[in-house]
Amino acid sequence: MARMHARRRGISRSVRPYRTSAPDWSNTDKETIIKQVVDMKKEGLSSARIGLVLRDKFGVPSVKLATGKRVDEILRENGLESSIPEDLRNLIEKALGLRKHLTENKKDLHNKRQLNLTEAKVRRLVKYYVKSKRLPAGWLYKPETAEILLSR
Questions:
Q1: Where is the Small ribosomal subunit protein uS15 N-terminal domain (predicted)?
Q2: Alpha-carbon dihedral sign for residues 138, 139, 140, 143
């Protein structure tokens, strides 16, 4: 698979083994895992961070194999889903950081290009999420109001 804004391929790395059920050694207590996911979200952790903590501290290699649901599905069922999807939020935060940097360093051409590429990714993701109804119809990314969006 090629990179989005570069003409090169990605790096090879390890791949999670194909499994249809949780391994024998893993923690598979469904109610406990769901309770931990809800508690960690209430503490302010993102869904990616929740998965890492469950893997590293609680011995749950895959939440989906242990509970039958993804972390986002568990959060949606418990009413803890964020208004903006996590990957979109991360890209908007990156774009805000680049904009702040460019206000102080106006001649930084490399970061101007990186800002253009990042905002192109944001617009592409917004189009996808509006089409799949995760965001309301007519939702647009505006750099001027992006900081207000993330404060919610």
A1: 1-60
A2: positive
C-alpha–C-alpha distance, residues 95 and 100, integer Å: 9
> What is the C-alpha to C-alpha distance for residues 52 and 59, in angstroms, rounded to an integer?
10
For the chain, what is the radius of gyration of the CA atoms?
Answer: 19
Helix/strand/coil for 84: coil
Distances in whole angstroms, Cα of residue 132 to Cα of each of 47, 70, 126, 127, 139: 20, 18, 10, 9, 12
pLDDT in tens, 28-59: 889 999 999 999 999 999 999 999 999 999 99
Looking up tokens 């809800």 gives 38
Predicted TM-score (pTM) of the model is 0.83
Give just the sign of the alpha carbon dihedral 38, 40, 42, 47.
Answer: negative
Helix (H, G, I), strand (E, B) or coil at 113: helix
